[in-house]
Amino acid sequence: MDHYVTAKKLADLKEELEHYRSVRRLEVGERLKRAKELGDLSENSEYMEARDEQQFVESHIGELEDIIKGAQIITMTRGTKTVEIGTTFVAGKNGKQYTYTVVGADEAKPEAGLVSNESPIGRAFLGKKLGDVIAFKTPAGEQKYTIAEIK
């Protein structure tokens, strides 16, 4: 599966993966070792918590590896005629202007104007041109925007 990320986000993910592999695994291993020393594992809540944490750490490592393996680097595009992943654009709605940048789902922060290419708004704008009117459905109802500028 493709994961669209910026080069900075990919570097952050690689750093996080290394931390989980080299630090978090060791921490959990130590917790498991100490918990085993307490005796009966069937009623040892510390051991059970450490096992749960170990499962989380291993699952997160697998998740990060999958994201990194499927990473498609987004280049922040300028001067394009259509909205693409990596494009920043201005859209108007009800007399107000909003600036958005289309990014991959792993970097989306709608409150900061970073919209996922998989979100309703991101999907609606992909491939559209300056002046296009875009209508799409959201949980809040149908939304209509007009593309005012593609940066």
CATH homology superfamily of the largest domain: Transcription elongation factor, GreA/GreB, N-terminal domain
CATH topology of the largest domain: Helix Hairpins
Largest sheet: 5 strands, mixed
Average residue-wise pLDDT = 91
Per DSSP E runs of 2 or more residues, the count of β-strands stands at: 7
Strand order of the largest sheet: 5-4-3-7-6
Instruction: Please give the radius of gyration in angstroms.
Output: 22 Å
- Unreliable stretches (pLDDT < 50, length at least 5) are none
Give the helix level as a range of percent: 40-55%
CATH top level of the largest domain is Mainly Alpha
Second-tier CATH architecture of the largest domain: Orthogonal Bundle
What is the string of helix and strand elements? EHHEEEEHEE
Strand content: 25-35%
Q: How many DSSP helices?
A: 3
Q: Which structural class should the secondary elements be placed in?
A: alpha/beta
